[in-house]
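Archive entry. Fields below.
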Amino acid sequence: MYERKIPLNLNCGLDLIAEVLYGKWKIRLLWFINEGYKRPSELQRKIPEASRRVLNIQLKELEAHELVSKTIYAQVPPKVEYNLTEFGETLLPIISMLGKWGDENEERLRAVIVKQTTSP
Amino acid sequence: MYERKIPLNLNCGLDLIAEVLYGKWKIRLLWFINEGYKRPSELQRKIPEASRRVLNIQLKELEAHELVSKTIYAQVPPKVEYNLTEFGETLLPIISMLGKWGDENEERLRAVIVKQTTSP
DNA sequence: TTGCATAGGGATAAATTTATCCCTATTGTA
DNA sequence: TACAATAGGGATAAATTTATCCCTATGCAA
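PREDICTED_STRUCTURE:
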């Protein structure tokens, strides 16, 4: 794993939650797992823009942070399932709120984001 | 400014909010501005781990995304003030919720984060 | 027998974000 | 006169995160 050179600072609640939720796909992974897409291959199909590799890595981090649990079924072809832990479930209202804010302000957000990206 | 090579994908609300809130210091900037630390130098003092440079850059992005407004006073030495826009204020409940979750789970989060960082 | 589905990881390159360092300008103070 | 405070930005290096490519293994279906 990558060895950090600049120490993390974990001063407040915002630092702490950032540490477990930062990661391009983590929030989406939590959300889809909650919606019932529990197997890596299902998640990969739900998030085709992400490579299988990153999803694996981020799932592993979510697991290390105890937000999801992993079950490996001893069968062939292999079967693995992720589930939210109780701890992970406590994030659902937050994720839902984030998504809702984004959806409610979709038009405006698209406008300002595009303007910034394509400004002269 | 940096010219993006991989196109953004802005499919859902989660993508949209991520686009404006990602950035190591953005959430904190919004929070402190709301608490009354409106001048760049004040913000810098509140967030000493960040360099002045990054704060400027992230403030600029927040402004471009219409979450904060900037007022320049024509005086010397220069005085600048940032304020949340009405739009920016709608993020406060979300930020508050994020911080609260982090605070409430502080102990557990520190444990899992440290474990992951220092694992054998 | 070739190919697909399953799941996972190593090695390395590329993209993106932050960090550092330096320079501009003005007024007041030691 | 030298330095601090104010605000801001260019250039470049470093850190960090993602993307790509390749390899392992097994059993089933065409």
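CURATOR_NOTE: Residues 6, 39-41, 52-53, 56-57, 72, 75-80 of chain A lie near DNA strand C (CB under 10 Å from a C1').
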